[in-house]
């Protein structure tokens, strides 16, 4: 997952995040965070990984794992 960090676009926060969605069949779909000056169009790595899988034809119910960094926003929500 560390190799994906070079693909992040985080010119405002400088905070690079990568995530990986894994299907029940073991297929892997990466995602990275992409920041925008228009904050509402910024996308987190977790959603980007899921969107990558769906774009490739995967149904969301077939995603069995989402690998995320422990310090991500999603990780904080899961831990709550």
Q: Tell me the number of strands.
A: 3
Question: What class would the helix/strand composition place it in?
Answer: alpha+beta
Radius of gyration over alpha carbons? Answer: 13 Å
How many helices? The count is: 2
Oligomer, anyone? single chain
CATH topology, which one?
Cytidine Deaminase, domain 2
* Strand order across the largest sheet: 2-1-3
Short description:
Helices cover about 20% and strands about 20% of the residues.
Report on this model:
This protein has a 3-stranded antiparallel β-sheet with strand order 2-1-3. It is globular, with a radius of gyration of 13 Å. The longest helix has 11 residues, at 45-55. The chain is an alpha+beta fold and 80 residues long. The chain has one domain: Cytidine Deaminase, domain 2 (3-Layer(aba) Sandwich). The model has no long low-confidence stretch (mean pLDDT 89). The chain has helices at residues 45-55, 73-79, and strands at 18-23, 28-32, 63-67.
Set out the fold topology:
Layout lengths: L17 E6 L4 E5 L12 H11 L7 E5 L5 H7 L1
Please give a handful of descriptors for the protein shown:
alpha+beta, globular, 80 residues, 22% helix, Cytidine Deaminase, domain 2, 20% strand
């Amino acid at each position: 997952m560390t190799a994906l960090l070079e693909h992040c676009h985080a010119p405002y926060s400088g905070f690079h995040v990568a995530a990986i969605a894994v299907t029940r069949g073991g297929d892997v779909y990466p995602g990275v965070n992409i920041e925008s000056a228009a904050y509402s169009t910024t996308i987190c790595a977790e959603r980007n990984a899921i969107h990558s899988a769906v774009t490739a034809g995967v149904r969301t119910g077939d995603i069995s794992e989402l690998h995320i960094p422990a310090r991500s926003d999603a990780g904080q929500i899961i831990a709550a």
